[in-house]
Design a protein that fits this description.
Layout (H helix, E strand, L loop, with lengths): L5 H16 L12 H5 L3 H15 L14 H11 L1
Helix pairs in contact: 1-3, 1-4
Length: about 80
C-alpha cells in the first residue's frame, strides 16, 4: 500500500463520513463531534469503519470503534493501521 499523505487521507475520510452521515463534506471539520454534532449512531460508526477497511485494505479491531469521535480521531486511527 503506497503511503497516503495527510491531506489525501483527510479528504477521503471526510468523504466516507459525509456519505454515511448524509452531510455535505464541507460541513465536517476536523473537530466535528460525530455523535453530538453530526448525529451519528453506532451503526454509522461501524459503516465508516468497514468503509475504511475496504478502501485501505486494513483491519481495524472493533474495540477501536469508540475512538471514532471526530474526523481528527478517525485520521489518527487510520494512520495507525496504514
Amino acid at each position: 500500500m503506497p503511503k497516503i499523505d495527510n491531506p489525501t487521507l483527510e479528504k477521503e475520510l471526510r468523504e466516507i463520513i459525509a456519505r454515511v452521515t448524509e452531510i455535505e463534506p464541507g460541513e465536517i471539520t476536523l473537530e466535528s463531534r460525530f455523535v453530538e454534532d453530526l448525529g451519528m449512531d453506532s451503526m454509522m460508526a461501524l459503516e465508516i469503519l468497514a468503509a475504511m477497511e475496504k478502501k485501505y485494505t486494513i483491519q481495524i479491531p472493533e474495540e477501536k470503534l469508540a475512538q471514532l469521535r471526530t474526523l481528527k480521531d478517525t485520521i489518527s486511527l487510520a494512520k495507525e493501521y496504514l
